[in-house]
Specification:
8 strands; mainly beta; eight-stranded mixed beta sheet; single chain
Length: 106
């Protein structure tokens, strides 16, 4: 990917449907995408203040990019139309899959 393509991705949150978005995360050297953040409706109904009220987020690493032996996900498709595996299970209990840029709840 070119630096321009990476910057374009950094300015977008992919709408996966059902209130779920995906925001890509770049490496420290700014030369690659290493993972992402999935933001979703908060299943615990916490009352976070500010613009994220009613939402929860969970981060993930793409295969070959984790630190401290964290779990990793495989990416198929492309950055704009991703399929990620395995499924996602957030600390709040929100669970499902990203398939062809759509959220499928478990």
């Amino acid at each position: 990917m070119t630096p321009e393509e990476i910057e374009e991705l950094m300015n977008v949150s992919l709408d996966l449907g059902n209130g779920v978005t995906l925001k890509w995360v770049k490496s420290y050297d700014l030369k690659s995408i290493v993972g992402g953040i999935i933001k979703h409706p908060d299943t615990l109904n916490s009352k976070y203040p500010g613009p994220d009220a009613g939402f929860c987020s969970g981060a993930f690493w793409l295969k070959g990019n984790s630190y401290n032996k964290q779990p990793e996900w495989d990416l198929t498709g492309d950055w704009w139309n991703p399929t990620l595996s395995p499924s996602f299970l957030c600390h709040c209990g929100f669970h499902g899959w990203v398939r062809e840029a759509k959220w499928e709840g478990a």
